[in-house]
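Whether sequence alone determines local backbone shape is best considered at the level of individual chains. For completeness, the protein is quoted in full, as a sequence line and a line of structure tokens:
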Amino acid sequence: MDFTQFHVFFEKEPKYRLKQAMEGLFRELASNWQEAGYLPAALRQKLDKEFPIGIIAETFVSKDENTIKALITLEDGFKIETVLMRHENGRNTVCISSQVGCAMNCAFCATGKLGFKRNLTIWEIIEQVLFFARYLKQSGEKISGVVFMGMGEPFLNYKNVMESIRILNDEDGFNIGARHISVSTSGIIDGIEKLSREEIQINLAISLHAPDNGLRSKLMPINKTHPLEKILNAVDNYIRETHRRVMFEYVMIKDVNDSEECAKKLAGLMKRRLYLVNLISYNPTGIFEASSTQKIKEFKEILEKEGVAVTQRYRFGQDIEGACGQLAAKN
């Protein structure tokens, strides 16, 4: 489905028809246009032919049922992953992909092994959220938030990512609050600068994962052209423009970036206004091992003692290979 052409198509129809179609798609969560009975039969037939809304996907559910991973097959046969994370407080967060594969080639990430194939279209981004909105409808639940932390680098597909965010946020779309939408970047400075000028107030997250350029360059090749000092400068400018807090993601990898020395170095970088460090227990991809629970606890305590704002994220979906790119790499 070409979402841009979808809007062009409705220019020939009465104005209210587009609103009806959007309601059927995003409110009633129709899985095909025949379910939108208030649209004329001839229009429904044409929509099913030109703008199909069926989604081909295989799902994997974790033992605790808190994580559901979907492997979606796109029209050209490529596969992408999206994950639903169900929190104890009743929130439902969808982690979505922005590209098929990824060019960043981070050492700890399964997606990097796939290489970069192509950018996702607006619809291919949206359908990941739509899939889980339909899934949750069965139990009377709704999606609470969306994070662009799946396959790919969102800021290398900036236009389509931002257009999809506007649909997620739009009253006629999913109507998800901007502050419940987050975009994670490996440090694309141009994207950070562009986001600082956007009117929509979504959350920015930076994939950090190391406290110095030497280690970060080994883990994340992009650091060779986008070093820490340039990224932090861009983030500081972003904060000055938006007055919004920025999250720094730090995956805890055993004997790689979890030492006391790393914690102290990280504290030196992160003691800044509106910085928040999010420690993440590594979801093994066969290359590295996750830091122990005790090690993460000690690491966090060092940061807190140094006055750094820090949280810890629970690891979702290890038993269903929940780490980004693991299933797509097998298929």
In short: Residues 325-331 have pLDDT under 50 and may be disordered. Residues 122-137 form the longest helix (16 residues). The CA atoms of residues 22 and 172 lie 6 Å apart. The chain has eleven helices and twelve strands.
